[in-house]
Amino acid sequence: MSPTASLRESIIQHLRYSFGKDPEHAILEDWRMALSYAVRDRITDAWIGATGKTYDSGAKRVYYLSMEFLIGRLLEDGIVNLELVDEAKAVLEEFGKDYGTVLSDEPDAALGNGGLGRLAACFLESLSTIGCPAHGYGIRYEHGLFRQSFVDGRQVEQPEHWLEQRHAWEFERPEVRYRIGFGGHVDRRGETVRWYPAEVVEAEAFDTPVIGWKGRWANTLRLWSGRAIHPFDLDRFNHGDFAGAAQPEALARTISRVLYPDDTTEQGKELRLKQEYFLTAAALRDILRRFNNQFGDLRKLPAKVAIQLNDTHPAIAGPELIRVLHDERGLSFEESMEIARGCLSYTNHTLLPEALETWDETLFGRLLPRHIELIDQIDSTHAKQNPSRMNSMRADHQVKMGQLSFVMAHHVNGVSALHTELMKTTVFEELHTLHPDRIVNETNGVTPRRWLLACNPRLAGLITESIGEGWVDDLEQLKGLEPFIEDTGWLDRYAQVKRDNKAELSNWMGTTHGLHVDPEMLFDVQIKRLHEYKRQHLNILETIAHWAEIRDNPTADWTPRLKLFGGKAAPGYFFAKDIIRLINDAAAVINADPVTAPYLKIAFLPNYNVSLAERMIPAADLSEQISTAGKEASGTGNMKFALNGAPTVGTLDGANVEIREHVGAENFFLFGMTAEEVMERRKVEGHAWKAVQADPRLKRALDLIRDGRFSPGEPERYHGITANLEGADYFLVCSDFTDYWRAQREVDTAFKDTRAWAKMAALNTARSGWFSSDRTIRGYMADIWGAQSLL
Ligand SMILES: [N-]=[N+]=N[C@]1([C@H](N)O)O[C@H](CO)[C@@H](O)[C@H](O)[C@H]1O
């Protein structure tokens, strides 16, 4: 039977027997679910096969612990990785269903905030593509990252409900439950130490298979959901306390109810710490159960188990593993600490002081009374082993999770070359001196299956036609495109792909948001979380200055530009929310200006998420990566844009540095201070004011904002922003403005020469192969985990 016929049969079978529908009466969601089940069946075969091979081989396993997995949608990922796109399209077409419409019916699994969460998802897909035995461990949040909408230009948050629709991709595992304790007290009898938690919640497993390229392997993402041991209190019910009767269930579910919406900022909230311990303790229980079933001798643990901590969020893993090995299994503290350290490695994702997790010792001690004791013992053991050590992880009545993670890890890695070097000279300076071989670099990457093959089929088709399909799991083969780039005919086809992608996005913006834009404009895109260090306010300042300049000289040969924004601000981050409002207010005025309308438009698309990124990135001409140098640890959107033929306007920050090295300085619009120059500039008294006085364009843009040009009814609305920029301006928006303006005008000039621009764009694609998450994962496997592919 042909693959199409076999897929058709599976879909019809599932429509009928899984959803009780025949094609005539099936609704869109039925078709989406039936297709999903048909794809899931094929994934499950690979999954069970991989699980068996892993067990039989006795291979070392990788465990990726993360509070976030920003998965997005999974149906298209399954179809593409199983190479069933044409088959799925053919079957749906036969029944008059549109492939894109069926795919878009799936809600995003928004179980993450931004780069850190998406990186975890790309890593799992690469681990499966490579055939490296691995599990992802996370939390099955009932509500992922909030839905964003705009009311009068302001961000409004609404709860996200991904689980309210039927979800095809998880298998509930009622047999996999662990009791996780909190609070209570520690009892000591001689050498025996026992922790008696006051509150116990059950963690129940929900498994999602993660398929790799060509369906050759599939690993497991195991997400924990909070359950009450005794969900219903009948006694209280019988006494008429109906709410009280349901309370045990409600309390337990609270732990996995919602994702904390902060990106690169710690919360310090008790529930967050409970979530972190809940995930970590359940994961370690599961890891040790599987290890015991297969190997038994705990001294072998480091040889068979590699546990990666995705930032400090699961850092409690060190003390928890020691607690189980020492308190429950009777090994000595020293041996338990060595075995634990032999298993654990930690990735740092940010240097921002406000993002480095530190917990108040009282809160920590109340919630985890045994762990704080073990942390003190870890700290004193480390001090004994390193007499010259100054800084304790327990200073100032805090528990410093960054130091704990470093001390309890055999390797610590940064996520870009620049970031890793800065780790050694800033946050981990002393620990790096004490342990000079522990820090390694593993520059981030992105999966080319989702971020090129699936989201940009036009470009993927042209590439495969030109160099074959080997690039899909060996992305550096894209270099093979360079000879084609010299052929103007091929280059024109490359440019046409971008034009068609832009037309598709314009149509979509027209139908869904009533935003009608000319696809011939330069699509200048900044999509990422809202944060001052990412400097969306520098972008809108330049846009306003540009608008004013066009109004001065409307007949000049301006390059028509569409400024596209997307991104959420943490609900409590008011300065970031003000930047969103300013962008929307400026858009309202500038888009309505007949003088400049042909040359400048602004659009802020609401509810930016993985699926919207997949729609916007293939249509981008220019990638905005304009963070203050030294602040963006890596960035991963920057890699996706370069891969999809959007040159970067950016600073020497994070992975921008390596992108520029790979694509060539001539194919990158560099501006701004370096990380060192930033440190120097901050020492200059009144650096912002000086910059404003030196640049009339900047001054005028600030004046327009301060005078209420974009908030006529409330002139003082943005005084918070202008006062900050003309005052402290910690992220040096004003000091980098003039050079940013220069770079943007260079972009205008370059874009006019369509062939030269197409060449620059194509060279970005051809030379971005190194930024595949397959390359990154191979680095972790070799440098950190000592894990092998079983393919
Ligand atoms: N947390 N955190 N950190 C980040 C991102 N915000 O999620 O991790 C990402 C993944 O490593 C980085 O690319 C990004 O620069 C960094 O800020």
Automatic annotation (TrEMBL):
Keyword presence, Cell inner membrane: no
Cofactor field: pyridoxal 5'-phosphate
Top enzyme category: transferase
Enzyme Commission number(s) of this protein: 2.4.1.1
Keywords from the UniProt entry: Carbohydrate metabolism, Glycosyltransferase, Pyridoxal phosphate, Transferase
Catalysed reaction, written as an equation: [(1->4)-alpha-D-glucosyl](n) + phosphate = [(1->4)-alpha-D-glucosyl](n-1) + alpha-D-glucose 1-phosphate
PROSITE patterns, sorted: PHOSPHORYLASE
CDD domains, per database record: GT35_Glycogen_Phosphorylase
Family: Belongs to the glycogen phosphorylase family.
Function field: Phosphorylase is an important allosteric enzyme in carbohydrate metabolism. Enzymes from different sources differ in their regulatory mechanisms and in their natural substrates. However, all known phosphorylases share catalytic and structural properties. Allosteric enzyme that catalyzes the rate-limiting step in glycogen catabolism, the phosphorolytic cleavage of glycogen to produce glucose-1-phosphate, and plays a central role in maintaining cellular and organismal glucose homeostasis.
Name of this protein: Alpha-1,4 glucan phosphorylase
Protein's organism: Salipiger mangrovisoli
